[in-house]
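assembly run, all chains below
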Amino acid sequence: MKSFLTRKNVVLLGGIVLLVVLLGVADATLNNYYLRILQLMGIYIVLTASLNLTNGFTGDFSLGHAAFMAIGGYVSALLTMPLAARALQLADLPAWFQEFAMPFPLATVLGGLLAALVALPVGLVVLRLRGHYLAVMTLGLLIVVKSLASNWEPVTRGARGLSGLDSATTLWWAFGWAVVTVFVVWRLVHSPFGRSMIAVRDDSVAAASRGIYVFQIRLIAFIMSAFFGGVGGALLAHQLTAITPPTYSFDLTFLIVIMLVIGGSGSVTGSVIGAIIMTIVPVILRDLERRFELPGVSQIIIAAALIAFMIFRRQGLMGSREMHPSTWFMKKPATPVSVDAPQQ
Amino acid sequence: MTINYIMQQLVNGLALGSIYALLAIGLTMVYGILRLINFAHGDLMMLGAYVSSIFISATILPILFAVVIPTLLMALMGLIVERTAYRPLRGAPEVAMLITSLGVSRLLQNSTVLVLSPQPRAFRLPGDLTQTMNVGGIRFTQLDVLTFLLVIALMVLLTLYINRSKTGMAMRASSENLRAARLIGINVNWAIGAAFVLGSALAGTAGFLWASRYGIIDPFMGFLPGVKAFVAAVIGGIGSIRGAVAGGVILGVAEIGFVGFLPPEFSGYRDAFVFSLLLIVLLVRPNGLFGKSEVERA
Amino acid sequence: MLEIRNLSVAYGKIVAVSNLSLTVNEGEIVTVVGGNGAGKTTTLRTVSGVLKPRSGEILFKGKSMVGLSPEAIVTRGISHSPEGRMIFGRLTITENLKLGAYNRKDPSGVKSDMERMFGMFPVLEQRKSQRAGTLSGGEQQMLAIARSLMSRPNLLLLDEPSLGLAPLLVEKIFDVVVELRNEGVTILLVEQNANEALRISDRAYVLETGTVTIEGPSTELINNPMLRAAYLGLD
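ok done. output:
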């Protein structure tokens, strides 16, 4: 039997222990402001790593991640809302609904599941499209979900939104889910399923001719991505403790896309790196923006950086390479074939 | 529901649809050649509206300036955007161009925030244009009439240019087969530049019309109309100018009809309705209503 | 007239042409034969400036063409009639021809050349205001050749002109090629139909996996036993 203590597992275990220690120290020493930034970082890792399944690996460029976040956010908020707040805000809902409050972890999972459930019929329809049309239709999904959130008064309270949620998203939950997401995505893309995903992205006709179920693969990736999108939305709702329709705006989708692009869509570790960088950079920029009273400057810099990335380093920081500590001490890993377009 | 009410909704729908049509023309020309959804197109309309507002407030100048100057300036702006942001991406994957256009959109919006203000401002036309006339019970303004005439005139001019001029010919050839156009020595960068200049000019004109219609402008006003205009172009059949105009008008009338004829509690779903319409068209008639053979190369 | 020295071209990491050298003298018809993926089309597209070489030199009338834009190369006298014809099906025949003369600044010359093309291909004149997409395969090939002649090239790159055509039309196309040479156009011809191509050409190159394996006068190559087996379908 192969020993459990392979070099890879030791490094992995060591990494998790290190993360736990670091988070423990952070939790004990940092003030609320910095803790919230770190929590956001964990949430963004969940969102970016999951969006990578579609946008990076199957090549289905979705602009609708915030739609699944909104579903997860609203569902979990409805489920966990304290009874007092519920009686006040959602009096129109049936009596049975007034009598229970679900624990946060379960509500998070259910939020993700409902997002995945919505992704099934949506995916069946919109995945018949590819490329640009898929991007526009997923943007349309976001607009549909937002319309629903803004207008379904008895449930979502429209523009007033839901408030008074427990501040349940701790550093541990945020990073716990981040680790789970990254682990699942990593295992998935390094399985035969993941190789099929990449084959679908690079040449779906060739993949189909090799017996790969192209549509099913894309659909599964879309649904998995939606699940973690929903989870991320639930985490965000319980960090903010209140949500309104603008919480899950196009800006949020766009931010996640930027994280993915800068990190390198096609690389799991790249998406993590992108999320970390793009959590910190905007904080610094917004700070400068306030200090010098230059509204909009942070967004301008980020947009300009994005354009520059597209022109000069389209593959993002990592491209489709992975950063894996256990390989640092080994011989040079085989570089995968890049997906450069032929020079025209 | 009277016949007058129906006619009234039709007039409103046509007015909105004309503006969508103006925007859709630019989007369809660029998409036809480059397969780029230019998400920044609506933001050029926004800039056009701001430029226009300068001339509206200075009441001495005739209203003509408020139309012509933004049109010309946006033509220039379109060229600048093409040269700096999109041209370096020739031959890049579609998605890279799409992301870039989102970046450009953000850049334009927030530059407006920085230079001016994030606050909305009023856009008031001189009284004559907005005075309502009543013909047989249907109310419309001089602005409505101006909108129709302007859109029709611009469309005729543009169609003539595209069908008759050498550049227009190069644009059509590039739209059909960009590789072949390059190979036989057509200056495709010139054709692409022309598509951007013409399309952006129309977006500038649309800026004036949109702002006059809604009376208020803000830095983020352009994005959604831009996306909806792309929807209109797809409905009409992307790549075709006639299709863009037809799609724009259909979308405008349908959207106003949705708000005007359904109970008021549905009106919050008008944007959702637009995308449902797109989805139906894409699934039932993927080449759009006036689409030519090949649409999607993905 | 055309001299390609040690040319290498790659798509990303996939090398399509490596270390290829080839010469075309003024007034010649030179044929390039080779199987699918041998790099024939890539070579032509690199000469036209659509692809950028990784290394090597391309000299035309003694001047380097590397790095010039496709339109600059057309202006200097190289014209390309692409594989698969690539005519503009939604444009009229006249418009297709006008686009072939896109970079010319002499309207009267363009007009007389158009008449010349109509003389050479009468079928095009009969249908000149129809959409090119309505033409048959053979007619489209004639249009593609006519379009590439509208720039008044000194050197014509012809990529698979007989592809998918009926034998009678193939004959006609090759007749046209010879006629063009007699009018003073130098021709670099890429053909799968090696037999016919060798018959009308002066010299030939055989390409395999992106590089030249055999070269020589066409009459010699036509009798080369290896070639006969591999490309000519004889024996």
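Chain A has 15 helices and no strands.

Chain A touches chain B through 44 residues (CB under 8 Å).

not gonna interpret more than that til we talk
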